[in-house]
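Quick one, T. Sequence first:
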Amino acid sequence: MTLTEQSKPAASGAIEVTTVASLARDWAARTPNQIAMREKDFGVWKEYTWGTTWDLIETAAHGLLALGVEPGDRVSIHAEDRPEWIILDLAAVAVRGITVGFYPTNPSAEVRYLLADSGACVHFAEDEEQYDKVEGVGRTAVPDVRSIIFVEPRGMVGKPDERLLFWDNFLDLGRQHKAQHPTAVADRMAAARPDDVMTLVYTSGTTGPPKGAMLTNTNAAFCIDKIVNSGERVPGGPPNPKDQIVTYLPLCHVAERIFSTWTMVGAGPVLNFAESIETVNDNLREVQPTIFFAVPRIWEKLHALSLIRANDASWFKRKVLAIGLGLAKRIGRIKVANDGNHTMQSRILAAIGWVIIFRPMRERLGLRRCRYASSGAAAIAPEVLEFFIGLGVPVFELYGMTENAAVATANFVGRMKLGTVGEPYPGIGLRIAEDTGEIQVKHEGVFVGYWNKPDKTAETMTDDGWLMTGDVGEWVDGTHVRIIDRIKHIIITSGGKNISPSEIENSLKTSPYVNEAMVIGEGRKYLTALIGIELDTVGDWALRRNLAYTTYRDLSEKPEVIELIELIVQATNEKFARVENVRKFALLPKQLDHEDGELTATQKLKRTAMLDTFGDLVESLY
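C-alpha cells:
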C-alpha cells in the first residue's frame, strides 16, 4: 500500500490524500460489523466494531471543530492506552489537526514544558491525576489551552475550571455540530495534503529537553507501506483482520503508535487494550495475541518470569522445566545458526519440547498463538531472543527511530541474523558513514524537522540530505546491520580505548536478577558499573533462602545479594576482552524512577542525571 495507490478521487474531483483517519473511515465503509477494538470494562471485554469506531471518530472530529480547532492546531492527549486515545488521535488528523501524545508518567514540570512548547489548544487529561498536573502548571504558563477534556469523572465534579469538558458532553457537542454542519469533517478530510503534519512525537530527552518530531501524512503512509504491510517480514504474511494485538505501551511512543493505531487502520487487526502495564501478562494470557511487539524491558521481564516459575515449581516440575529450557536453548542456537530457519534436528526437538513444556509455557506467557513478535526501541541481549526463538516464538529484532518513522532495518523471515537489527527495508537509502560509523538514512519516512527548533533540525541532517541517526553501526556479511551504540554513549578510557557500554549492560541484564545497569569509565583507568536489582526475582531468590528483608534498599545491601550479583558480573566479564571488564560495581540503593529524573518516559537511563544523583557512589568505585 503506497500513498498513491491508496489515494482516491474526492467529491470535488480532486485526489484525496490518504491519512490514518481516511483509512479508518474506509474500513468502516467496507466492513462495518468487523471488530476493531476491545477493552476490559468491569472484567468483561467490550467490543467496538469498525462502524461504531468510525462513528465515534467522526463525532469527536465534529467536537474538535466545535471547539474551534483549525488546520495545524495541536490537540494533546495525556492518558493511559484506551479507545478514547485512538479515537481522539484519529479525529484530530481528520480535521487536519496535529496530535501531541504525552506519557502517562510525565510529571507536572514536563507537562508544562510539552503544553507550552507545542502550543496545544485542546488537551485531553484522562482523569483527576492528569488534570491536576495541568492545574498545577497555572494558566499563564500555558495560555493556549482553551479546552480540557476528561473521561474519568471521579474527583472532577466541582472543579472550578470552565475549560473542563466531560467526554460524553464533548461527543454531544460533536453530534450537535454534525447536525448543523454535516459535511464539515468530510470537507476537512478532502482538503488534507501529503505534507500536513499529523503528529508531534516528542523524543525521550536523554540529553536535554524533549524535541517534537514532526511527522506528516506522507511519513505515516510510507511507514504503513514498509512496516505494517511488508509481506516478507512477517511469517504467514502481513497483519490482517483475523489477527489479535495487545496494546499496552504508551501510544505517544512512535513504536506503539505504529504497532497499534497504524497497524489497525492499515491492516485491520483487532486491538485489545491491556487494563494497565501491571496486568499485561494477565491480559496476554486472556487474548493470546497473534502479533506482539515489545521493548527489550518487556522481553527481559517475560524471560525472568519463566525462570521464577521454574524455581517456584515442585521438584518434578522443576526437572521437567529444566529439560524444556535446555531444549529451548539448543533449538534457539540451531535456528540462529541457520538464519532463523529450522533444521530436521531442531524440528524434532521442537516437537518433543512442545509436548513436554513449550505449549503450557507459551500459554502462561500469553504467546501460544503468536505468529510474529518483534523487539525494538532499544538494544536487547541476543541470549534473551535466543530463548524465545527456541521456545517457538518467532521474535525478530528491528530498528528505527522517531525521526525516520521507525523505517530503517528489520530481520526478515528466513534471513535472520541474531545480534543484528536486520537488513534495510527495500527501496530505502541507508548508509554507514566511513569516518564516524554513523548510520544514516534517506527516504519518504524521514521527518520534516523538530517543532520550533530549526537549529536542532539542521544538526540532524547532512549537507546532502541524509538523516543522521546518532547510532554507530557496522555491516555484517554486507547485508545486515549491527548497532554498536549511540555515538554519545561510546566510552573512551584514559588509555584511549573506545568501548561500547550498551553491549556490556545488555549482557548484565540478561540475568533475571538485574533490572538495570550503567557502565561507567569515560576518562577512567577501568570500567565500573551501577547495577539495579530486579526486586521481584531477587526478592523471590531471597525468600527461598529464608533471607528476610524489608525494603528495596535493605535487600540490595544484603551481602548475599551482593555476592549473587558479583557472580553475574564475573560471568559477563568472561564474554568480553579484559579492557571491557567491569572491575568494580555498586548496587543502586533505590529503584530508578521517571519522576525522580533518572529515567526517561521510555525507561531509558538519563546518564548525566544518574552521575549527578549517584556521583558519590561512582567516586567510591574509583
